[in-house]
Design goal:
This protein has 52 residues and is mainly beta. Helices cover 0% and strands 63% of the residues. It has one domain.
């Protein structure tokens, strides 16, 4: 399974960028996702990445 970048729009109008990684959970017996916020989109539509 792989990683991909997804966009989620919050109620306040900000669009956040997440790295979504799907993986197989052996204990639970099904696939699941792990999402990490990597930044947001600016007013001009350009990505602003987190600095940490």
């Amino acid at each position: 399974m792989g990683k991909r970048v997804i966009e989620i729009k919050a109620k306040n109008g900000t669009v956040y960028l997440y790295e979504d990684e799907s993986y197989w959970d052996r204990e639970k017996g099904y696939s699941t996702h792990k999402r990490t916020c990597i930044g947001k989109k600016g007013a001009d539509g350009e990505a602003i990445y987190n600095t940490y």
